[in-house]
Here is the input.
Amino acid sequence: QVQLVESGGGSVQAGGSLRLSCAASGLTFSAYSMGWFRQAPGKEREFVAVRRWSGTGTMYVDSVKGRFTVSRDNAKNTVYLQMNSLKPEDTAVYYCAAGGYSNDPVKYTYWGQGTQVTVSS
Here is the structure.
């Protein structure tokens, strides 16, 4: 079956960096755009970034532009989210998802279990 497994979350001080990874199995990875979403306590799930299934197309939510970078390695079936200059408001559970090239969560078919990112001031 399809599995998306996130890793790399943790606790960091404001201004620090983390790199999240999402390893996919059970699907044709190169056929899916790979997105990152996040959900903070008491808030709805929010789109963060997506990398197109082919080529270099990317989209980001405005709040992370210039700080976060999404990349993928189709040979390793893995998508990454490099997060720099982290802010306390980035604190959330981060999820990777496989689906269409979109900022709409309903366009995604498969989801990981999430990894916690906590940024302290």
